[in-house]
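Fill in residues.
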């Protein structure tokens, strides 16, 4: 699942509502041994006797929920970044990300009740450097992309939490700030990158390469 989507305002609101409401709703249902599948089955078979009347609890889908939360974070950041790009181009986008990327991510983390981060093996901001488990996933994902194979999200159990990894792949727009320094990034933009990120490692990417991953850490149901 590659997180490379252009978001409209209405889609952002829809994702926010279904993610935040759905996360809590489905967790509550699971605590009671009820699932959406069972609810639908009951509705479709209303008035029919099943004899035993037993239900089976299905596991909560943390991988899907993490994906929805990652999309919510991407929609918040991407939607605002798109507006900044349309007004001031990639130079303004670099300045916007420098001031707002981490606060926006933290805000969505609070809304969703999960810990969200964007990390990379070649970070622009050193605070976004990947740890050992994230680097292992990134290496595997890069190998798959290089061989033309699809990259899938991954769910891991880390320190008692469910942690989802979701790939971020470059699009053409990304390369205006993350592409080749001589042919794709303008001198003005490169100057701002150098000033704001003296330890930048996030240039030199090509199209449809892995630039990093969303990491969504969720509380595991006991």
């Amino acid at each position: 699942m590659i997180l490379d989507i252009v978001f409209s305002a209405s889609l952002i609101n829809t994702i926010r509502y279904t993610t935040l409401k759905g996360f809590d709703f489905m967790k509550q249902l699971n605590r009671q041994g009820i699932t959406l599948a069972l609810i639908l089955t009951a509705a479709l078979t209303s008035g029919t006797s099943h004899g035993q009347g037993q239900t089976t609890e299905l596991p909560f889908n943390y991988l899907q929920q993490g994906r929805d939360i990652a999309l919510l974070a991407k929609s918040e950041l991407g939607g605002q970044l798109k507006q900044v790009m349309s007004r001031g181009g990639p130079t303004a986008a670099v300045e916007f990300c420098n001031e707002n990327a981490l606060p926006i991510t933290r805000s969505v983390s609070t809304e969703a009740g999960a810990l969200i981060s964007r990390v990379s093996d070649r970070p622009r901001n050193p605070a976004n450097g990947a740890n050992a488990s994230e680097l292992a996933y990134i290496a595997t994902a890069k190998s798959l992309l290089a061989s033309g194979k699809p990259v899938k999200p991954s769910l891991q159990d880390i320190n008692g939490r469910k942690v989802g990894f979701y790939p971020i792949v470059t699009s053409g727009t990304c390369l205006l700030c993350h592409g080749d320094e001589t042919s794709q990034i303008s001198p003005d933009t490169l100057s701002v990158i150098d000033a704001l990120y003296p330890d930048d490692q996030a240039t030199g990417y090509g199209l449809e390469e892995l630039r990093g991953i969303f990491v969504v850490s969720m509380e595991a149901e006991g």
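The helical segments are 9-31, 36-44, 62-112, 132-146, 175-178, 187-196.
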